[in-house]
Write a structure and sequence with these properties.
single chain; about 60 residues; alpha+beta; 3 helices; about 35% helix
Length: about 60
């Protein structure tokens, strides 16, 4: 019911995977029934609404650093 999502693999791995396989984001979001929690580097959430990272950026309202 709750999905916890991290936007990065590690310090040196980068953020590329979010947009590389957009279907993975679709699966994660669609399986979250009660909550979808996002943790990680908000700098990874770049792009426009045609990218998975861009959509996630637009949907993320609160960022705690």
């Amino acid at each position: 019911k709750v999905i916890i999502f991290s936007s990065v693999y590690g310090n040196e791995d980068g953020c590329f995977f979010i947009n590389k396989a957009a279907n993975l984001m679709n699966v994660a979001v669609s399986r979250a029934k009660d909550s979808f929690l996002v943790f990680g580097d908000s700098g990874c959430l770049t792009g426009n609404e045609k990218t998975a990272a861009g959509l996630l950026k637009n949907m993320t309202k609160t960022v705690v650093e």
